Every structure is written in C-alpha cells, then in structure tokens.
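Morning!

As promised:
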Amino acid sequence: MKNILLTIVLALFSASMFAQSDSAFIRKVYDEALENGESYENLRYLCKNIGNRITGSAEAEMAVYWGKQLLESYGFDKVFLQEINVPHWERGTKEAAWLVDEQGKFLKINILALGGSVGTSGLLEKNLLIVKTLGDLKKLDKADVLGKIVYLGEAFDAKNIRTFDSYGQCGAQRWEGPSVAANMGASGLVIRSLGSEIDDYPHTGSFGREDGVQPIPCAAISTADSDKLEDWAKRSKLKIRMEMDCRWYDDAISYNVIGEMTGKKSDEIISWGGHLDSWDVGEGAHDDGAGIAHSIEALRILKVLGYRPNHTLRCVLFMNEENGNFGGKGYAEQAFKDGEKHIAALESDRGGFLPLGFDIEGNENQISLVQDNSKVLQKHFQLYTFKAGYSGVDIHPLKEYYPDMVQLGLAINSQLYFNYHHTEADVFEAVNQRELELGCAAMAAMVYLLDQHLN
Amino acid sequence: MKNILLTIVLALFSASMFAQSDSAFIRKVYDEALENGESYENLRYLCKNIGNRITGSAEAEMAVYWGKQLLESYGFDKVFLQEINVPHWERGTKEAAWLVDEQGKFLKINILALGGSVGTSGLLEKNLLIVKTLGDLKKLDKADVLGKIVYLGEAFDAKNIRTFDSYGQCGAQRWEGPSVAANMGASGLVIRSLGSEIDDYPHTGSFGREDGVQPIPCAAISTADSDKLEDWAKRSKLKIRMEMDCRWYDDAISYNVIGEMTGKKSDEIISWGGHLDSWDVGEGAHDDGAGIAHSIEALRILKVLGYRPNHTLRCVLFMNEENGNFGGKGYAEQAFKDGEKHIAALESDRGGFLPLGFDIEGNENQISLVQDNSKVLQKHFQLYTFKAGYSGVDIHPLKEYYPDMVQLGLAINSQLYFNYHHTEADVFEAVNQRELELGCAAMAAMVYLLDQHLN
C-alpha cells in the first residue's frame, strides 16, 4: 500500500513538474511569437515580392529560392531541397464569359478556369443546361446533356457551423463534375463557386481527370453571378459564350524545401509543414502562405529559444499540394527509401485565422496522449479543441508508409476561409498579424509537446 | 438497491432526454441564425442609416426610434422605453495637433479628443513632457509637470494572448491619466492610443473626472504617430500645438429600449443586451452595434421558433454605456423599484467576431450549472470556453440589487477588437456576417439553456 501511495505521489509530482515546465517553455514560445515574431514579415515578402506561385511558374521557383535562403538564414542544422516532378498548367491570357438570353440580352460574368482545364479554342457558344447538383446531373439522359455546357449550382450550406463541412458537401461538383459532364457528352462545365459568401470572386481549384475521357473546358462562376444566372434562367433559356486559353505544358522540375534541427535520437523524425505552391490568382496568402509562415516560424522559435530536441525536427515547405500533391508523395517516398523513421507529422493548411487547437489522426492511445499533454494549451494558451479529425493533404502520404505515426492538423477559425480560398481576394492584407502569430506559437508548442512526450 | 438503480437509470435517462432535446432545439436556433438571420441587415441599417450615436446626439435618438420600431415589428409581448438622463458632450469641429521640434520642424499627427475632454480655446502650444507610464508620471515632482502637456506612452503588451488583458494593463493612462495630470498642474494630456496595432487611427474613450480638479484638454494619438513622437523625442525636446473645441452641454433625456417575451413564471426575469450608444466616430459596428444585433436577434429567433419561455425574457438595448453607464444603472434601479425578480443577465459587448463561449459571474453552484448545461454547446456547436470571468458593464448594476443572480458575458475572439475599438475604423464592413450570426445563435442558445435549467 505504501509503495502504491508513493508511486501515485511520485507520478502526480512528476506529472505536475512536467506540466509546469511545459507551461514555462510554451510561455516563452508565445512571447517570442508575439513580441519578436517574423512570420508576418515573412508572409508579406512571399506575397508581395513573389506573389501567387503555381507549379511550373517562375514564381514557384522563386518561392523555392526564397524558402531555402530564409531557412539558411536561420542557421538550422540542415537545409536541403528535395527534387520532384510537378505538373505545369497555365491559365493563359483569355478568360471571359457572357450569359445570353432568348432576346439576345447579355451579361458579362466573372469566371475562372478550373485548374487543369483545357481552353475553348476561341469563342465557344453553347446552350446552357441548368442543373442543381451533381446527383441531379447523373440522373439525366446523355441525350439531354450532349453538346451543352452544364451549369452545376449547388451552394454552400450556410447551416454548417464548420465551413469545411459545406466545402466537403458541394465540393463534388468541382472534383467530379468535369469528368461526369464530359462522360455524358457535355461541351463544357461551369460551376457555382465553392465560396461561403455572395461576392464577385470566382474560386478556382483542381478536379479529377479520367484517362480516356475527352477533356472539356471547365470554369467556376462567382457566387453573385451564379445568383444572377439562376435568376435569369427562371425567365429564359440561356446560352453561354466563353473563351479560355488555358493549357497544359510538359511536367517541370521543382522542389520541397526542408529545414532540420537534428535531435538526440536523430533517426526519429517529427515533420511539419504547409505548401509553398498556391493557385495562380491572388497571392496565396491564407492558402497556404500562412501555413508556410507558421511552419518556418515554429522551427525558428524553437531554435532561438535554444531548444535541444529529442527527435529530429523538420519543417517542410511542400511543393504542389494544389494540383497533384507530388510534394507530399515525394517526401513520403523518399523518407521510406532512405529508411527514415517518422513518428509524427503536423500540417497547417487552413489559413492564417485564429487557431483553435488541433485535429488528431491516430490510434486511441495517440489521441489520448495528445489530449493529455495538450491540457496545458487549454489551460493557459487559449487553445480549445483537440479531437480526432483530419490532419492534412501534404502529410497524408507519409501515413501510407508509416501507419503507426500520429498526424495533426492545425484547427483554425474557418468562418472566413472560403471567402478567400482560391480567389484573387486571397492576399496578404486578408491576414491579421496577431492571429498569424498565434498560429505559429500553437505549431511550435505542439511540436515541443510531441517531442517531449512521444516515445 | 433496486430503487437506487431505478433512480440512477431514470436520472440518466432524464438527463439524456434533456440533453437531446436541448441539442435539437439549439440546432434549430443555429439553423435560423445562419439561414434566415436578420442580424447582419439590422446591423447594416444601424450603421449606415444612423451611424455613430453618442448620447445627446440626434443619431442616439434615431437609434432609440429604430430600436423600438424594430422590436415592435417582431411582435414581442411587450416593447417599451425606459427614460434616463444622459450626458451630452460634443467633439465640435476643430481637432488638430502638430509636433514641433527644436529646429521648428513640425509634423501633423492624428488625434482624437478623449470623450468628455474640454477644448483648448484656440491653438494651444506647450512643451511636451514624455512619460512612459502613469506610474512614472506619479513619481515626478509637480514642478516638472506644471504648465506642460504630458504624453503617456504605455503600449499594448503584445505578449498577452487575450487583448483585453493588455487593454486592462495600459488602460489606466486613459482612465486615470487626465485627473492625475491635472492634479499635478499639467496644461493638457495626450496618450498613446489603447490599440493593439500600429496604424493611423487614434482611439477615443472615456476617463474619470474628479470634482474640484480644473479639467485640461486630453486627447489620444494614433499608435503610428506615437511611435514617431517617441522617435523624435530621442533627438529633440518637443513642443505640441493643438486645437480642440469639444465641450459639454446640459444633460439630455434618452431611453433604454426593451422588448419582452412574457414567461410562464412572469415575475422571474432573464435579461440580456448590448449598448445602443457608441462613441462619436466610425459607426459603432463592433462596439456595440454587434451586441445590439446579437441581442435583438436572440429574442427574434426564440419568438420565430415558437418558444414558450418559463421565465420572462427581456432584450435590453442599453443607452449610455460609453460615458456614464446611466442606461445600465437606470435599468437596475427601475427593476428594484418595481419589485422585479432578476435571476440572470447576459451581455454582448466585445464585438462581432467569432464567439468562443461565455464568461460567468456567479457563485460556484451557478458556474457549475452553466458549465454542465453548456456541454451541449461544446459538443455540437463549436463553443469552447465556459469559465468564471467578467460579464459586462451594462448588466453589472443589476448585481448590486440582486447579488444572487448569475451574469454571463459573451466571450469573443478578441484578437482584432482593439484595431477598431473607439475609432473611425469601427464600421459595418469590419464585421463578418457568419461570425455575427454565430454570436446571435450563441446568445439565443444560452438564454434558452438558462430558461430551461435555472430555477
């Protein structure tokens, strides 16, 4: 009995010691992020001195150049590039569309080609087939679709508190719509933008391309113009006239950019990152300049505080999340080839808004371990949510090679994210400095906790 | 034993029934707020069709007129005005200041008279005494202060995660600075704005006025100009030239605006509100148009859902929070005079950003009761924090008359609040529709939970 009591007392004592030292260290992390933070200026530089950066572009290569320079400037133990093949698609210079009613009245509408679409080879005019959802389209006869341009108009469901749930629900019209419409003989597809607000910004994004299906021009219409289109369609049959000269080029060579602090157990690795590429509009500020700024700053903070990691800590600026995820896949393949041992990975790819906690992908023990050790973040650092959930696209391929690892995604206030996502509006000015800095601190704090408490 | 088991089973069953019915009802609350919400258009109307609304202004009276009309349009059981005396101060038309160095080089700086300041009677030129904090000022000899204009330059501490903590820390330079400086013989006071961001917007606000102390002109300087001032002061003694023609008028008559749904126990009252007045710059959108929009919408939602309250539910649009709190005091006095029984009150006065939960003022049992019944909000409705904490200025006077009541303040993401607070930047466009709507739903949900579970 005495021994049991002693054990309990020691356990409590040691738990409280740990918690106290965690809390003290994490307080330093927050102080550094909030008082001496460099994330905001780094993001400004990436957005304003480089700009948007789709793979294959000069800007994507400048982003690699910048990322490597910046990581080197911080004096980490290792900084290196990891070569990958990336797709190269360009929007071109022509992108316009008009609705035309039966009386010949016409209205110019705001469109963006979906990323990976083919062009129209000049001005394309077709009858417009108005369909509410992808499910409705699938129920139609091919004959009704043949030769028409299909409009898919599923809107964001405002009732979901988490906007990512709405994105998941109506996202299929972008992800699958192009191949479904093409398979049914459509001449093109336009979709209502996957945006949560009624405004004039169309939202681009990728879609699945099926081998053996003749590709058709695909574009997104702003939500405000989609409302107008649906309104016009109540009174008249509509045609659409559109021109896009986007096109594919040969694959290009690009790079993941990696910075590392070597740990005492150097062969066990904790990685985290965001993606360095972006869509080819706006400045890729929230998506995912913020994740890049978070990730670099997390490693900088740990280094500046003189932290000596147990495991090897790696910040990865993944290339090509947006259209292929070859950066994430390449990183995972290379890790496996090199016989590395990956025990944990984190991702930030949900914008630079207020961080709320982490979503955790792992087994029950791992989830409990993260939850237990996150109590200090709940108690002292205004982070709230640590639940089982999705981590992130870039780090997911690691899980295929290391099924036993734990993965975490930084959970962020999602209310405004889909006002900016994949649009011209996603610029530096849409990111708040303090919210960005709190995200950096949250990432650094969680890396620290994992490094301390994972075996 | 059987009886005990039965009791436990029944208790569990009934708790789960409650929770289930709470969850189902609150889901309807959120659906109504997010899909059919009127809060955003109400806020637009208040901001754009009325504007800022300090007591004594025509706009404040238009806000009363609007509030009563709007509450009446919703068909609540009672809508009534409650007369109160309010102060009447006006900024006037002259407000300018220049720094002047020893070489006569000068710089126009952005200032706002603090609310309640006296004017300068023309152009006032004085030597500037640079002091970092109010504590430092108090340590000086009166002879060093006499005849000078004091500059108090305590900045927001970026290290506090909650910006309200920083406001509390450096706030004394506004609240107490004017009377301390006047008592020491200063000819005026200028302070670094109580703002979290470096920008060109000065932040006004109220301060304590001591009887028998000759008032002096007091103004806030934008944080960007405060940085410049502190920089110039390193190289040169400085003078300041300033003119303000703000002044006091006789008290005016104004009103709290109250809407009520009468409960089954009609003599027990749950009140909630925000404040209808604002400072005389910007549009009072976050402070506190958002709280007004939250409060009205909460009652509208309960009414539209056909909710039959147990207690009498009252939405109060308090007048005069900003410079006197005579609305809050008047409401409490009247309640006590009328022999009303107030069991709970809620306030929203921290902006229209993402709601995170509620801060609770009450005894341990009340805090536990709120926490227990809020689990449904944590589980299903992305609210996170339910801790002991400050409720709000408007409802606080009630606590003096009803010390046994429980009071709650809507807790909101505070990161951006002090970029807008009491400035020209606090306009409708700074409020996001979904975040505002989530605040409305949180208020309605908490009113419902209190009405259901408070005895």
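Residues 26-85+251-453 of chain B form a domain with the Aminopeptidase fold (CATH 3.40.630.10).

Hope this helps with the figure draft.
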